[in-house]
Amino acid sequence: MVAFLFLLPYVLWEVSNGWPTLEFWSNYGEKIDAASPLEFLVEQIVTMQPPTLPLWLAGLLYYLFSGGARSYRALGWVYVILFVIFLLQNARFYFLAPAYPMLFAAGAVVFECFVNQLNRGWIKSAFVMVLAVSGFVVAPLTVLPALPVETLAKITGAVGGDAGVQVETREVGQLPQIFADRFGWENMVADVAELRGGAQNPGCQAPLVLPDASRGGDGQRHVRDHEPGLCHRHAEEHDHQSVLGRQARCHHHQSGR
């Protein structure tokens, strides 16, 4: 009841404004590579690392079916409902990630009880080692920039780029998107500086319009604001597509054409 009261103002806002969030997700999903229920489930397993599957699956089953978990039954349904919503909305696979800590917590309790019944304490130590080794192997391929770029590209490129997980409908390169998005900004900054220097009138009073194809443009703008010869600006930013109209304040004159 308390949680519903916290949610109620948001629901009323959605109703009064024609459910804009649903409209956003229906449009947003068009850029995400469509996944079947099985593919979405596989993406969850890969994202959480396959060795953790027994842990969070045991936690989910405990919440949904255990007699001792009646007080926590809603947590299991929260995961199931979010899984279905994100699947139907064709959301990114990692949007469900915040729901897993509660599954890990319950799964750890189930796992410990199971090991204690077997009287095989070494299983817990072995499982921890498996998780540690798995994380050590997977992290450099997915989130931790520890490998040389050429080495990483050879490994992930062999499975189709993006570490084998297709995120968006656009063509992917050899590097996972989380790493690939870190390259190319310097060249883009140089191109923008060259165009600005040739097209801007003296005084820099006209707004500069710079459309960005993705939110990666945030990083581009950060670098661009520190590029010598470029004007400082303030931006109105929007997710995935922003048109930046700025009133530039220059301390020098630039030639126009």
Protein architecture, described:
The protein has about 260 residues and is mainly alpha-helical. The protein has 2 domains: about 1-165, no CATH class; about 185-255. The chain is about 55% helix and about 0% strand. It is built from 11 helices and no strands. Helix 4 crosses helix 5 (about 75-90), helix 4 packs across helix 6 and helix 10 (about 185-200) packs across helix 11. The radius of gyration is 24 Å and the shape is flat. It starts with a helix and ends in a 33-residue tail after the last helix. The model is unreliable at about 230-255 (pLDDT under 50).
Taken as a percent bin, the fraction of beta residues is: under 5%
**SSE string:** HHHHHHHHHHH
Number of domains: 2
Number of extended strands: 0
Shape type: flat
Mean pLDDT: 76
**Number of separate helices:** 11
Largest sheet, described in full? none
Oligomer: single chain
Helix-residue proportion: 40-55%
Taking pLDDT < 50 over at least 5 consecutive residues as the criterion, the unreliable ranges are 231-257
**How far apart lie the N and C ends?**
65 Å
> Which value, in Å, is the CA radius of gyration?
24 Å
| Structure class | mainly alpha
